[in-house]
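Lecture 7 notes: from sequence to structure.

We start with a single chain of 207 residues. Read the sequence below before looking at the structure.
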Amino acid sequence: MNVPWPVELADGDIALRPIRLRDQRLWREVNRRNRDWLRPWEATVPPPAPGGPLTQRPTYRQMVRHLRGEAHAGRMLPFVIEYRGRLVGQVTVAGITWGSMCSGHIGYWVDQAVAGRGVMPTAVALAVDHCFRSVGLHRIEVCIRPENVPSRRVVEKLGFREEGLRPRYLHIDGDWRDHLVYALTAEEVPEGMVARWHRLRPGTARK
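Now the structure, written as tokens:
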């Protein structure tokens, strides 16, 4: 299946675009400022089995090259989020599967300095619309630690369904953590996710 890539998406002050090698300085600066805020929710690599090989965290350049390769292979859509032209986070559609499933899952993070301004719900809405309308996926999942209330609010605002708990689902912050599963199918948002978000969000001004 030919997945459109690269692609840029925008709604008001918020834009999604492919991550680039030249984003390294800004990406590192945002991550450094948000280290303590993001650490409880970031995926980690479990320790190796006795005698097994050690797994090193990839460099930024290795990460970007891997994401690019996965994008061109049609398995992933790795975006950075820009708010008023400034890099403020990432949203990634990963695990893209075709055949009888036609699904993917979304992960995201955002700079604490812009949290609460509608940046993350808009970014997720843009990604979902692209997946359903341009890529041709049928189902999108988001898996979130139960303790991550701000992240859960993002998908709840957008109308994702909570489907249940996956015990010890991902290695996060040094241990295997339970995750709640939220999901949505294309039939549930015939008007489009961005349109739904503008209809449901408080107020009328884009922030």
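The first strand starts at residue 9 and ends at 11. Keep this in mind for problem set 3.
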